Each structure stands twice: as C-alpha cells, then as structure tokens.
Amino acid sequence: xxxxxxxxxxxxxxxxxxxxxxxxxxxxxxxxxxxxxxxxxxxxxxxxxxxxxxxxxxxxxxxxxxxxxxxxxxxxxxxxxxxxxxxxx
Amino acid sequence: xxxxxxxxxxxxxxxxxxxxxxxxxxxxxxxxxxxxxxxxxxxxxxxxxxxxxxxxxxxxxxxxxxxxxxxxxxxxxxxxxxxxxxxxxxxxxxxxxxxxxxxxxxxxxxxxxxxxxxxxxxxxxxxxxxxxxxxxxxxxxxxxxxxxxxxxxxxxxxxxxxxxxxxxxxxxxxxxxxxxxxxxxxxxxxxxxxxxxxxxxxxxxxxxxxxxxxxxxxxxxxxxxxxxxxxxxxxxxxxxxxxxxxxxxxxxxxxxxxxxxxxxxxxxxxxxxxxxxxxxxxxxxxxxxxxxxxxxxxxxxxxxxxxxxxxxxxxxxxxxxxxxxxxxxxxxxxxxxxxxxxxxxxxxxxxxxxxxxxxxxxxxxxxxxxxxxxxxxxxxxxxxxxxxxxxxxxxxxxxxxxxxxxxxxxxxxxxxxxxxxxxxxxxxxxxxxxxxxxxxxxxxxxxxx
Lengths: 89, 449
Known about the structure:
The complex is a heterodimer of chains A (about 90) and B (about 450).
Chain A: H1 3-11, E1 13-14, E2 19-21, E3 28-31, H2 33-43, H3 48-58, E4 59-60, H4 67-79
Antiparallel strand pairs in A: 1-2, 2-3
Chain B: E1 6-7, E2 13-15, E3 35-36, E4 39-40, H1 41-48, E5 52-56, H2 57-74, E6 78-83, H3 90-98, E7 102-105, H4 108-116, E8 124-126, H5 133-142, E9 145-148, H6 151-164, E10 169-175, E11 189-190, H7 195-206, E12 210-215, H8 226-246, E13 252-254, H9 272-275, H10 279-290, E14 302-305, H11 309-312, E15 316-327, E16 333-337, E17 354-356, E18 365-370, E19 379-386, E20 394-398, H12 404-407, E21 418-421, E22 427-431, H13 436-440
Parallel strand pairs in B: 5-21, 6-7, 6-14, 7-8, 8-9, 9-10, 10-11, 10-12, 12-13, 13-14, 16-18
Antiparallel strand pairs in B: 3-4, 5-15, 15-16, 15-20, 17-20, 18-19, 21-22
C-alpha cells in the first residue's frame, strides 16, 4: 500500500463506538464493530487475505467467503471518499 | 481460557446527515413483531409459506364494535354496511355479516358474491357508476337498495321498474363542494349547482320510483373529520328542503365511507398513527352535522355508514422473507423480498410500517426494500432507516388489510395463501395460494397455432 494512502487513512479519526470523522471533508460517519475492525486493519496496511483471516479469528461467523462483504465495505469507503476511487488491495 | 468471539455482522458505513428530524418528525422506533395474535410468525411461514397474508378476526371485531358503540351513544338509528370492494374474501365478509353489517356492493360480481354468501336482498346496498340492467333488475326484484348515480341510470331504473310493474324506494347519490377536501363530482348529482334537486324533481315527475334515501361518499382516506360535519350538514339540509318544499320523507341517509386508517400516505409528513382521527372524532362530526335534520321529519332517518378501510386495514398483515441484500450505485443498501406491489398495491399510496419478525441488532442504515418483480416500479419502501437483515429473515408489513387482496394481481409470481386467526387462536386458510393449473384452466390455445 502506498504511503500517501496510508497517511490518508491514518488521519481518519475512529472512536471506539464506530464514530468516524474525516478531517479533510469534515464529514462524519458511523460504522459497526466489523467496519471499525476492517478500517483498523487497513490503516495497518493489511491486504484482503490478512483481513479475512483476522475477521475469522476475532468474530464468530459461519460465512464461508467474507471477501464479498469486505469488497462491499471497501466500495462504501470509496463512495464516502475515505478511500481513493482507484484503491486496490 | 479463550475469549468468546463477537458475533459477525456485515460491515456498514452510514454517513450522518443534517435535517433528518426535528421536534415534530421524530424517528420511529422499530420493534420486532415475532407473533401475530399469539401465533409465531416463523411457525405461520413454515406451515403456510411465504409471502403470507394474515388477518386477525380479533382486530376486525374490535374495530367494528368500537365504531358501533360510539354510534349507538350519539345516533342509535344507524346501520353499518360492509364495503365489499375493500376486501371481499368470503371469510372477511362473513365476519362483518356476523357482526351485523349489511353488504355494500358496486358491481354485479360483488352483488352475486353477497347473495352467494347468504346475504338477503334486503341487506344489500347497490352503489356505483356503472350498474348493468341485469343487476338493476335483480336488485329491484329482490328488494335491495339502489343509490342512483346519474340521469341515464335513473331512466334505466324507471324502465326496469315499469317492466316489473313495481314502484321501488330508491336513493340518489349527491356530491358536495366541501371546504377542506377535493370535490368528488364524478359520482352522483351535484348539490351546489342544483343538479341534485333537478334529479329529485325528475324522479318525482316520472312516478315510477319513490325517493326515500340520500347517499354521498365524500372521498377516501379523509383525514379531516370536519369534512364529514360539513357534508352531513349539507345532506341534512337537503333532506329538510325536500321535506319542506316537496313533502318528501327521507327514510335513510347514507354517508358512505372514507375514514382513514393508521397508514401513512406518501404525501403525509407525520406518521399515520400520530395523526389519523379516532372513530370518536368522525362520529362526533357526523352527528353534529345531523343536528340540521331538526324539524325535517317526525322520524329520524336511518344512518348508513359504509366504512371499509378503517375497519379492516389494521387487521391485515403481510409476512415476507428477505431474499437478498445488495448495494445501489450510491452506496445505499437494498433488500429484495419475496412480495411486491403485485400483492401490495397500497405501497404505491402508503409508507407502510415494516418490522422484522425476529430480534435484531446492529447499526441502522438507509435501506430500500424492493419486491421480486423484474420491474423498476416494484418498490415497497424507497428509503427506510433499517437494521441489518440476513437472507431468510422474515419481515411483517403492517396495516395491509384494505384493498390489497381485492386489487392484487397475478403477475410474474402467483398469489399467496391468506389465513385468518380466530379470536380463540385458531388459524385457517381463507384463500389458497394459486397454482399454475388455476391460471391455465382459463386459457385456450386455438388449434390453428
């Protein structure tokens, strides 16, 4: 992951309850426990496989494939301009 | 020791928006509805399938009795007539018949349905702008009450009465210009421009019919009770005028229907359960209007009400199942369920209250709820703040008892089972789900194809 993107993600403030503040736009968001967890892993520079594996370790789930949920969340972050449109794992 | 894991939930992201609510428009809490009249929703679906219409006899009876008790207190000479077009499933009509309602029908099909259910002619009111000669003849022969809609129908009634050698008592439908609601002048004779009086004179001169009743139906989903006060006052003054100037005795006044249910119209700002008038408010307005009858007759006329929607809407539920979750191009969540506007035509008019049938958790986000049709207009709720849903979750759509199981259509999918839960908790099918055989039985393929 490139440094500019990492710095952009690091500037986003996330509270323990999932409240998100984007200092660049002033926009505020709310996310759930899973979303907060993924954002934290993205900030640390993790890729899709690592994120999927960490979710399995942390959450109780019988879902076989979590990739579609993760990609859907990435698209939401792009839509909210918290990630650049050309972001790829 | 291992820490228990947190239950997984799909990740979401909801942007905060300003201006969603103020002190008048608070957000509505969503409470799960796991049971309908004591029956677990999950059990109902396992036994009867999804989607599933469920009717509560308890609600129907309690609404009907509430209205009757209020009328009895203020104007004891009244009679309810069940509006067949609102819901003419046999079991529903029989419940209202058992509760003492007459039948109010607006077509030959509905007329025949009432007769087949054992409703005597003397307890049937025939309304509508398009009565056939055939149904008029049946109604006149049997002694049903007819409310005349226009001059051509008046002439037709005279012709049939002449042929039968009788002089029946009839009513005419009158429409009014009211200050708070649009004028429904396409039905009946207008009062303000003198058309109604002309119709009475024409009827009297014809000497084939006897005018005994006045009918009006001021509108639908009337949220302003004062409109009934105004209309009732006008019809009462008209009855008084006919008595004083022409010596006619009006034996009945029929005020039609139009009471609102607790649904919320798309155009309404506040939710229906906060603003819909109570039966008490409607009855008070009507009886105040009837005070204008004073001196018009030694005997007060029989008051008919053809209330439909307000008696049945809250007794109907539609259970549906989540088929899929997806994201729209703007990031909004969309849910696809197995019922749509072909079963729920009223979703075109109302923001129906939809509640999960199971406990839920997680963060609410703006959600569109779509039906199963491959049609863009199949939208149950375009935007509702909703908790996360999983495939297979059940939802209960509330207040769907009026007009849906009469105006529904077979389109793309088949129509589902309809059940009724009795007051003692017995649940029975009152209309079976359609099969392919039901539909193809009416079709023919000509031999030349």
